[in-house]
Specification:
The chain has 343 residues and is an alpha/beta fold. 55% of the residues lie in helices and 11% in strands. It has 15 helices and 11 strands. The protein is globular, with a radius of gyration of 25 Å.
Length: 343
Amino acid sequence: MDFVSYDTVIDCRSPSEFAEDHIPGAVSAPVLDDAERAHVGTLYKQVSPFEAKKLGAALVAKNVARHVETLFAGKGRGWRPLVYCWRGGKRSAAMAHILREIGWDAQTLAGGYRGYRRWVLAQLETIPQKLPFRVVHGPTGSGKSRFLGALRRAGAQVLDLEDLAAHRGSVLGNLPDRPQPSQKWFESQLLHELSSLDAARLVFVEGESKKIGQLQVPEALIGAMRASPCVVLDTTIEVRVSLLLEEYRHFVDRPEALEAQLDCLVGLHGRETIAGWKSLASRGAWRDFVALLLMEHYDPAYRRSSLHNFVHLPHAARVSIGSAEAAAFDAAARTLIEDAVAA
């Protein structure tokens, strides 16, 4: 789909529809807000289509007028907007008609948001197969996300799935200040990222499972990652503990949230083991708690899943992370990039 040839992409659906998902970079300019849309729909079913259309037309005209006076007030004569609604029907057609009457070359998106969603899913099936991935592995706490950041700072191409998913990918991976996006918005952002990558250059990505928190990673991307060469971070247990204590500091400040998450592991480890972990946390023995959690839960899970799913992992290049300092990650990233270029 061609979005870049337009000056602005306008989503004229309701705010709740926009919040669930939209074309990245689109501006929200609803012709009906959520309450108005519900009211018109009720009127259509319970009174008559005529009365619903009459009310809808008045509301649309009022709302488009407000957008012209505010959102679009500074647009010049040559402005070219692309307008879309759910199906490319009445809502986008009404707004585009008014904008064209003003003198702007407003167009509507054929098929609307539904057509866009079909296109997103089709693109997510094909683009991953064209990209040369290098998959970064290492047990929990080895600094994979930090390493991706260092690679990006060093000029490498990086796809950070956990950042897009707003989740660190483990049972304790919820971010306290960032709820996970909807599945659809995750896929829209993912496609936007994938489309920006150069297929002639390596793309570094963390080795993920099929789900990151509550979000599903597209099958084609998982398949491409699992078939790609790997890199493993060698990070000592002491450094891993330090990294995790930094990343999960919010659990130290909110022990009740930590206990609730640990309770999710009772089925795997039994109440006695979980009680022992909780006891360490309650006493403030955080380094002992994290080390035990790594050795008894995360490391066995990592060995089971990674070795089974990533066929090239046994032959992976290895990168040593000497400390939790950013400089150690930057140095390791530069070395890896130099080695990749030399190869």
